[in-house]
Design goal:
Layout: H1 3-10, E1 29-33, E2 36-41, E3 43-44, E4 47-51, E5 58-59, H2 71-74, E6 81-90, E7 93-101, E8 108-115, E9 128-136, E10 149-152, E11 158-162, E12 169-173, E13 187-191, E14 209-217, E15 220-227, E16 239-245, E17 266-270, E18 275-286, E19 289-298, E20 305-311, E21 313-314, E22 320-321
Antiparallel strand pairs: 1-2, 2-4, 3-6, 4-5, 6-7, 7-8, 8-9, 10-11, 11-12, 12-13, 14-15, 15-16, 16-17, 18-19, 19-20, 21-22
């Protein structure tokens, strides 16, 4: 097992504390059901926490109690450590997307599971896996099938954004059942950074971006994404940037008018001397307040990743800002 994989495994949730001593999570997403908030994150079986107030979190059982049968066929060295989930509720069903991958490779797939309730004690509780949604193959694809996020456009059409490194972040139209890509297929590249020409297609490269999340507000689609490097303890350089578009398919422009397709991005939050890096965010509106959830690497705790929750403020021009890390 490589050093990076050992370090990533060390970043999964291991402890339970109040929000003033944040829980260890990586790649958090959040949803509410019946007054209880559910947080899902990277971890064995997909990590799961619950909270009544977005501050005090209790560990719940993971989504999957055993490794899914199909995963070894995609990632031979897979060990049940699922990455970067996304969760949503649509037409009476909960959908949980997740990533299966080898670190630093695009030997990857995005899968999806469904449930009728998030209450595992309910008679109809529990998740049913629906298998692969999309898969990437080394040397065939200059994109990586991880970090999924679903957004619906104004016509109600679902789209999935996903990806990391290689040739940028992708957007693909989904079938109305949310279990597969729509046919005929419709793809976009929504964000890129410059990639050195001489780098092999097998290498993720130096165009360091990943973790797209699209948040709709006031007629805009805001594309949040993470730049630079995660999962490296004191060497982590993660930060969150944003662009926006009137159309879900883009182009997404930053505050200066530069397209994210050409490397643009307006800074939202970054690390400091106390937090080595901050990234992989999700954004929601709960009880009329907009929130940004992300993780940051704690310099005071051996670089472990911790949950960060920030209320989003908006400038007069409609750009998101959050309180810096402290």
């Amino acid at each position: 097992m490589t050093h990076f994989i050992r370090l990533l495994l060390a970043l999964i949730p291991l402890s339970l504390t109040a929000q003033d001593d944040p829980i260890r999570v990586h790649d958090p997403v959040v949803i509410e059901q019946g007054g209880l908030y559910h947080l899902f994150a990277t971890g064995s079986g997909v990590a799961h926490f619950t909270s009544p107030d977005l501050e005090n979190w209790t560990r719940a059982d993971p989504v999957f109690s055993a490794e899914l049968d199909w995963t070894k066929g995609v990632v031979p060295d897979f060990g049940g450590h699922y990455w970067a989930p996304d969760v949503l509720f649509h037409q009476g069903t909960y959908y949980l997307y997740y990533s299966v991958s080898s670190f630093g490779k695009n030997t990857s797939a995005i899968g999806v599971a469904t449930a009728s309730t998030l209450d595992p004690e309910a008679e109809d509780g529990g998740w049913t896996d629906r298998g692969i949604v999309i898969q990437s193959h080394p040397e065939r694809d200059l994109w990586n099938a991880i970090d999924p996020n679903i957004v619906f456009d104004d016509a109600g059409t679902p789209w999935m954004s996903f990806g990391s490194f290689w040739n940028g972040l992708k957007l693909v139209r989904m079938d109305p059942d949310l279990l597969r890509i729509a046919e005929p297929q419709e793809w976009r590249t929504i964000a890129r950074r410059e990639r050195s020409f001489e780098i092999s297609d097998l290498n993720p490269g130096d165009a360091a971006l990943e973790a797209p999340f699209v948040f709709k507000k006031d007629g805009w689609y805001y594309l949040f994404l993470s730049w630079d490097l995660c999962c490296r303890g004191a060497e982590s350089t993660y930060k969150v940037v944003v662009g926006r578009s009137r159309e879900v398919t883009g182009p997404y422009l930053d505050r200066e008018g530069k397209s994210l397709f050409y490397g643009g991005g307006t800074l939202v939050v970054r690390g400091n001397e106390d937090w080595y890096g901050a990234g992989h965010c999700s954004a929601y509106t709960f009880d009329g307040t907009d929130y940004l959830f992300f993780h940051a690497y704690d310099a005071g705790d051996e670089g472990h990743s911790k949950l960060m929750t920030r209320e989003i403020s908006w400038t007069d021009g409609g750009w998101p800002t959050v309180r810096p890390l402290n």
